[in-house]
Design a protein that fits this description.
two-stranded antiparallel ribbon; 4-stranded antiparallel sheet; globular; single chain; 172 residues; 22% helix; alpha+beta
């Protein structure tokens, strides 16, 4: 900061040297106005119903492997957080194992006003749809759609042949 005599403001009072408390790396002014946060959400019946509805809707939109990728993505993206959109971008809907939602969703019981785990039954098992929101006036958005555990477990190694039994087949 330029030197000044006592009681005087420097000629360039708005000037901030790097490392000043009024300057944040990247050119963002720390004194810039930030948007006001929305009201804090609550975990009441209305919030729970909204989470169940969003989880079911998201899974129904996700589980449509018959759609072309552009249509599928255009309909899924508005339901996702920015991080989830980056993670799921490029997904081929034909590779989604679920084909349809088969029953009503339920809450997993690990929920807060900001995060909800919605368990949605599908034709391949129960998906865990993780939802989040930042405030009470924001809709729930999908963070992750986790397939049933059965689909994510590694296959066990083949059993060794029984002593004296036939050798396993070789080749295709």
């Amino acid at each position: 900061m330029p030197e000044t005599s006592e009681g005087q403001e420097p000629a360039d009072a708005d000037h901030h040297e790097p490392g000043d408390h009024g300057h944040v790396e990247g050119g963002t002014d720390a004194h810039a106005e930030l948007p006001e946060p929305g009201p804090a959400p609550t975990w009441d019946e209305e919030s729970q119903a909204a989470a169940l509805e969003r989880g079911s809707t998201a899974m129904a939109v996700f589980a449509r492997p018959h759609l072309d990728a552009a249509t599928w993505w255009a309909e899924l993206t508005p339901l996702l957080t920015a991080a989830a959109a980056m993670a799921y971008e490029g997904t081929d809907p034909a590779e989604v194992p679920a084909r349809q939602v088969t029953g009503p969703a339920r809450l997993a019981g690990q929920d807060t006003p900001y995060l909800a785990h919605v368990l949605v039954p599908t034709d391949v098992g129960e998906y865990d749809v993780l939802l989040s929101r930042q405030s009470a006036d924001e809709a729930w958005q999908v963070e992750r759609l986790t397939p049933p555990e059965v689909l994510t477990l590694p296959l066990p190694p083949p059993a060794p042949p029984a002593p004296g039994g036939p050798a396993p087949p070789v080749g295709p």
